[in-house]
Amino acid sequence: MVSFEEIEHTADWAFRVTGRELGDLLENAARAMQALDGVAPNGEPSATREIEAQGIDRESLLVNWLNEILFLEQTHQLVCERFHIYELNDYRLRARVETRECQESQTHIKAATFHNLKVRETSEGLEAEVVLDV
Amino acid sequence: MLSKQEFVRVADNIWEIPPTFRDDMRVPARVYADEQLLDAALGDNSVVQLVNTATLPGVVRHAIAMPDIHQGYGFPIGGVVATRLPDGVVSPGGVGYDINCGVRLLASVMTADEIEPYLEDIASSVYANCPSGVGSHGHLRVTNSELDKVLHEGSRWMLAKGYASREDLDRTEECGRVPGADASFVSDHARERGRNQLGTLGAGNHFIEVDKVAEVYDQPTAARLGIFSGNVAVQIHCGSRGLGHQVCEDYVSRFQKAVQDYGIILPDRELVCAPLDSHEGQEYFHAMACAANFAFANRQLLTHMIRHSFEQVLAGKIKDFQLHQVYDVAHNMAKVEEHEVDGRRFRVCVHRKGSTRAFGPGSSVLPEDLRDIGQPVLIPGSMGTASYVLIGTTEAMQQTFGSTCHGAGRLMSRAKARKMVRGTELRDQLRNRGILICAGLLSALAEESPVAYKDVSRVVEVVHKLGIGRKVARLEPVAVIKG
Q1: Under an 8 A CB cutoff, do B71 and A113 touch?
Q2: B471 three-class SS
Q3: Terminus of chain B with fewer CB atoms < 10 Å: N or C?
Q4: Cβ contact, residue pair B135, A104, below 8 Å
Q5: Cβ–Cβ contact A106 with B under 8 A
Q6: Whole domain around residue B376: which residue ranges?
Q7: A-proximal residues of B, 420-449, CB under 8 Å
Q8: Using the 8-state DSSP alphabet, how is residue B116 labeled?
Q9: Interface predicted TM-score (ipTM)
């Protein structure tokens, strides 16, 4: 189960995502974006890809991470199936992702945005609301 | 969300939120709308987003929203914000991810009745020749050095390659080439995303539409633009594809740090900005110009492919099937322009985010043959509804930094539209109304259903009454090609 829910937005897509800690939040947000984008793995497993993202805080790390995943999807037609985040702090992450070729996405996500973005601490971990430009 | 009580009605169809409304506002926020469209704007967070833009450093006169305003991310869609140079800011989010998304209109001497028997073949040919969908690849592959030239030269490169005529360039904003482009500020990611996308339509609300000129409101102006009642016209709505999206992503991300360095405090991080005369501001401007040129080149190549499609189908059947360019205009762009504010002229950086430049008669940047009538303004409606050709006005120069609306404006979320409308039913309904649809994904078609949008005729009526864009002609669709 992916921990996210879609939020109403007039023009774009938005979702609320949770995670026990930052790594979970990042992984769940990536899965949420891929689910909203409607990408379905249907091709051959592809080579494992390295993703590196940096930011000035958790929020910018989250946005930059999502945009790296979007880049893989839109430029190489790859959907991420498994995530191994092996280096992580609030400013930098390195991950190995197992990918599979995918069909063209159903929606047209241009980018993950910073709009009203805040990674909040909750009693169960972390939560964020992400708006995607469609 | 805000209520109507917060507004002062300063004139018919002009509503203002004074700067006393919030401590961080530097100028008033104005909405140009009739009462019904204002109510629609108050249905989501778009007016709060407009107020947020009134806090940008260097903002002058008013933060402005057009009647098609709706909620975006950071800036509202339908927003116009001008900042005073040299130290006023430029905001990548104020241009948006689809840099130089815009509309091109081609007109002809063919009548809609004449092409009716061939319409299905024309639509199929256009659909085949103009790849659509998110990651679609175009027929034209460019090397790295050719891509540099596209980024620097825009439509001019297309002219050199035989995909454009001199007349096409004359009838394109900035002649299809924004000055200041420097490809060294465009990332490898951006280049990779855009490299194979020249001549592609993309997805979302982008489209190619074959139209009939249904009504002409201003005969002399329409005749000057080559627009005649009953004739065929073609609209292209798209932008800079993945390349532009990535340029915006790169700089919104980089500017997160820049705002800290310049001590700029903002109500929303998507509004990040930097003084235009700073090195960050300049670098974004160079990269944005590249993406804008890519978009002009993209619409130019699509134009070439559409002309080719008409020729494929109509050669030998119709005497004159040529499509001449009426105009090509951006509605997501930041530009350095000179405007008069409080009786003084100075240079400003005008952000138009879902707003169209609408320069009036006499503007020196217009092609000579249009200078006495003003700039053509192209306002596409939602799928299956009317579109409008307007002309820029002196009032727009005086009131809105030479800007007007850009379309119908969304009213309903994509998720809700998908729940309410089935793509197949919508396609059949439009077909019954005589509108042919060629679309890749029917679920995506449902998102663009007319019920999800405001009434474009109402939006256009407001700008016409306000004088910030004058009606010239109305177009009705006969075939729509979408991703």
Answers
A1: no
A2: strand
A3: N
A4: yes
A5: yes
A6: 4-411+453-482
A7: 440-441, 443-444, 447
A8: G
A9: 0.94
Interface of A with B in 69-98 (CB under 8 A): 71, 73-75, 77
Residues found in chain A: 134
Q: What is the CATH number of the domain that holds B11?
A: 3.90.1860.10
For domain A4-133, give the fold. Answer: Archease, Possible Chaperone; Chain: A; domain 1 (3.55.10)
Inside any domain, residue B313: yes
Q: How far is A63 from chain B (nearest CA, A)?
A: 8
Q: How far is CA A42 from CA A31, B131, B396, in A?
A: 16, 22, 52
Cα–Cα distance measured from residue B206 to residue B361, given in angstroms and rounded to the nearest whole number: 30
The predicted-structure confidence for A81-132, as pLDDT tens digits, reads as follows 999 999 999 999 999 999 998 876 666 899 999 999 999 999 999 999 999 9
CA distance to partner chain B, nearest, from residue A113 (Å): 7
Contacts of B483 in chain A (CB under 8 A): 108
Q: Which of B245, B339, B351, B406 is catalytic?
A: B406
Residues 6+ positions from B382 with CB-CB distance below 8 Å: B407, B408, B448, B449, B450, B452, B453, B456
Closest alpha carbon to B267 in B49, B6, B7: B49
* Neighboring chain B residues of A105 at a CB cutoff of 8 Å: 134-135
Q: What letters, b where the CB count within 10 A reaches 16 and e where it falls short, cover A21-59?
A: ebbbbbbbbbbbbbebbbbebeeeebeebebebebeebb
Of B44, B135, B270, which is closest to A10 when you measure between CB atoms? B44
Task: Indicate which of B413, B419, B420 best probes the interface with A, i.e. most A CBs within 10 Å of its own CB.
Answer: B413
Is the confidence at residue A39, as pLDDT, over 80?
Answer: no
Number of domains in chain B: 1
Does some domain include residue B57? yes
Per-residue pLDDT tens digits for B116-168: 999 999 999 999 999 887 667 788 989 999 999 999 999 999 999 999 999 99
Whether B189 sits inside 8 A of A71 (CB atoms) is: yes
- Domain assignments of chain A as residue spans, ordered by start: 4-133
With 0-12 / 13-18 / 19 or more C-beta atoms within 10 angstroms meaning exposed / middle / buried, residue B426 is buried
Please tell me if residue B219 touches chain A, with a CB cutoff of 8 Å: no
- Beta pairing partners, B89: B275
Respond yes or no: is residue B406 known to be catalytic: yes
- Whether residue B62 lies inside any domain: the answer is yes
B96 and A133 within 8 Å at the Cβ level: the answer is yes
pLDDT, tens digit, for every residue of B432-483? 999 999 988 787 788 888 898 999 999 999 999 999 999 999 999 999 998 7
Q: What is the DSSP letter of B442?
A: H
Give the contacts of B153 (CB within 8 A, at least 6 positions apart): B160, B177, B293, B297
* Contact across the interface for B414 and A107, Cβ inside 8 Å: yes
Residue B96 and residue A114: Cβ atoms within 8 Å? no
How far, in Å, CA of A45 to CA of B18, rounded? 58
Residue contact B202–A108, C-beta within 8 A: yes
CA-angle at B414, arms to B410 and B418, nearest 5°: 125
Residue B445 lies in a domain: no
For residue B46, list chain A residues with Cβ-Cβ distance below 8 A. Answer: 10
Summarize pLDDT for B266-296 with one digit per residue, the tens: 999 999 999 999 999 999 999 999 999 999 9
Q: Is beta strand B376-379 parallel, antiparallel or unpaired with respect to B324-330?
A: unpaired
